[in-house]
Amino acid sequence: MGSGFRRNDGGIETVIRPSLLRCLTVLCMTLLLAVACTRKQDGREVVTFWVMGYEGQVVAQLIPEFERLHPGIKVRLQQLPWLSAHEKLLTAFAGDSLPDVSPIGNTWIPEFIALGAIEPLDAQLAATPGFDVADYFPGIWDSGRADGVTYAVPWYVETRLPFYRTDILAEAGVTQPPQSWDEWRTAMAAVKREVGPGRYAILLPLNEFEPLLSLAIQQPEPMLRDGGRYGNFRSQGFRDALGFYQEMFKQEWAPVLTNNQISNVWDEFGNGMFSYYVSGPWNIARFKERLPPAQQGDWMTMPLPGPDGPGASLANGTSFVVFRSSRHKQAAWTLIDYLSTPQVQARFHALTGNLPPRRSPWRTPALANDVHARAFREQLERAVPTPKVPEWERIASEIGLVGEQVANGRMSVDEAATELDRRADKILEKRRWMLDQAAQGASP
Amino acid sequence: MKAATAGWVFAAPALLVIVLFFGLPVLAALALSLTDFDIYALADLDNLRFVGLDNYVGLLQNPLFWKSLGNTLYFVAVGVPLSIAMSLGAAVLLHSRLARFKPFFRTAFFAPVVTTVVAVAVIWRYLFHTRYGLVNWGLSWVGIDPVDWLGDPNWAMPTIILFAVWKNFGYNMIIFLAGLQSIPEDLYEAARIDGAGRWKQFRHITLPMLGPVLLLVAILTMAGYFQLFAEPYVMTQGGPLESTKSVLYLMYEEGFKWWNLGNASAVAFLLFLLMAATTSGLLWLARRRGIE
Question: Which of A86, A188, A286, B122 is the most interior residue, by most CB within 10 Å?
């Protein structure tokens, strides 16, 4: 609403001022660009490199070494915030001002393939003998591929698994981390008995779709069928996952809460409000930092239990892509190659705590001796990419919304599965039309 | 040169700017709302389909649209009268001759208007926290059980309304204060001589004299409240169970999150129609009662 109010109180003045400012900014930027262009005359090839978030600040420390090794290339690093990155990339695509290379979210890759905005990398991969594809975790590497073509090289990875309180679980009599859903059920029931009402066994924040999605991706049936034309949420597998999710709320193992209602997840974990928390690798550093020293021995990570024994989880993270509009593709590839070498990956991990997507950096002492990272190492072998359609993020957010209804007891599992199929089919309507068009175009 | 021509020439630059930066974009958005513009169309314009009124029909059949419309109307129906009552009450208190420290209170009441929504919303989220919030702590003193202000679908919207009213009433209060100051003192004097009490003076002098100001404030506030967005965006992200998702929030998600610009434009035009209808309804009502 705010916008309505702000428009009222300043009248014409506020309308004019920003536009004037904008003009000035544009003018300044043009001047700066002109300056930058003239400076480029030192003969080096300039590669524009957009990096989102904190990694953007950190990667700057790795660039000088690259430029020393490759005197003919200069990297122009631009940092952008994650929150507006997707928008900026799409706008840049529309305005034909994309950078040469950028690490983008794994779930965005299908979208940029559909846009025809990114370049296949197979030729470069074949021409770079030192590049060991087999060293990458298979599920993670696969998230950058579509129809047998490689479009992206993973930079760092992220998967979801439970963080847990060793002390509370020991008090509840759970000594071994559960491996299957049944063992996990027994463990959660034991914790709930131990902690009583008001405290819980597990936290599954209702504003995140990842916990439910992590359970669903463990199932053999894909979540979309017929080449991503229709939703497949009425499959037995998805309904099992949703049933397990529902059970955790019904039994009051999990509180019906969003992250917004918990002022500080780390403190609450420390207070023992919940003993399992399904989250990603960034929380290793957070817990080390936020929990008091006395509690540092009381938490651990474990692989995500599967329906029958150790299960899969999501293959998220970011991957480098080279944009089709780039005129410095070879130089861009050189940069990707450099940032993907095990040594640089290990250094990058030391600087950020981000997990490497290939196995060899995991053998360096820093990672091999990190007890909290160990579960991630194991889980990454079993990471599975989400369905590769551009509409996936929207479908995933619908999974979250419908999951919230189920958690609140407003929908049964079967109703939710039907509803999800209905929503997914509607979202995929344009895709079906596109695929049909392409098929028609190919046949005559 | 005739006077009329000269007038047009002088107005031309302004008109040109309006046509170029307002008229054309609106027309383009209207055209966009008749297509299914999305990322596929962004890649290749051949993928753009003209869908006629399908976006509008689809929206009218979409339960989420009705839900967010219901939420918005709830917000407007409760929030606007509450906000006007609050600002009028505050203005009357401040205008009273008995009031002390007027400049201080005027500033204090106006302060929320000039604060940043995001910063204030974070504080409100702490205040309304179920376990540690000051509000529930206060309620526990009078023996009321903790309320899950932002997590219960029945309470989330009232909390948002409270927040929005607190944040905005100071602005209208200043307008009302100006209105009150322009009411001649002799009217009250005459009423007092006739033996009218405080309530009668308010009812028969203050309110009628404030008529035009009230109308202006009502229209401005309503137009603002229909565009509910920042508060749920910061405090609840439209949740829980989509109970605070407004029409504008829906438009934002369609347009900037999912890049369905065709659909988003249709939402915008539906909201525009609704606001235009309500405003003209209000004006019609005012005209019939002889205000304006």
Answer: A188
Residue A269: what are its φ and ψ, rounded to 5°?
-60, -45
Chain B residues with CB inside 8 Å of A10's CB? Answer: none
Contact with chain B for residue A96, Cβ under 8 A: no
Closest alpha carbon within chain A to B226: A1
Q: How far is A268 from chain B (nearest CA, A)?
A: 11
Do residues A110 and A243 share a domain?
no
Q: Do A117 and B38 touch (CB under 8 A)?
A: no
Containing domain of residue A140, as a range? 42-158+316-380
Residue of chain A minimizing CA distance to B216: A8
Can you give the pLDDT at residue A444? 56
In this structure, the strands spanning A153-158 and A316-322 are antiparallel
Chains A, B: CB contacts under 8 A, how many? 89
Q: In the structure, what pLDDT confidence band is assigned to residue B253 with cuts at 50, 70 and 90?
A: confident
* Residue A362 three-state SS: helix
Q: How confident is the model at residue B204 (pLDDT cuts 50, 70, 90)?
A: confident
Rounded Cα gap, residues A101 and A47, in angstroms: 8
B34 pLDDT more than 80:
yes
* CATH superfamily of this structure's domain B60-288: MetI-like (1.10.3720.10)
Beta strand residue intervals within chain B, DSSP E: none
Average pLDDT, chain B: 89
Shared domain for A309 and A323, answered yes or no, is no
Crossing angle between the packed helical segments B63-95 and B211-226, to the nearest 10 degrees:
140
The pLDDT tens digits of the residues spanning A319-340 come to 999 999 999 999 999 999 999 9
How far apart are alpha carbons B288 and B292 in whole angstroms?
10
CB contact under 8 A, B129 and A263: yes
CA dist., res. A431 & res. A395, Å (int):
13
Listed in sequence order, the residues at least 6 apart from A267 whose beta carbon sits closer than 8 Å to its beta carbon are A290
* Residue A375 resides in a domain: yes
A330-377 pLDDT per residue, tens: 999 999 999 999 999 999 998 888 899 999 999 998 888 889 999 999
> Interface pTM (ipTM) of the complex?
0.73
- Read off the amino acid at residue B113: V
Q: What is the pTM of this model?
A: 0.80
pLDDT score at B256: 81
Amino acid at A49: F
Does A131 share its domain with A71?
yes
In a domain? residue A365: yes
Dihedral angle over CA of A136, A139, A142, A143, nearest 10:
-110
What's the average model confidence in pLDDT over A120-127? 92
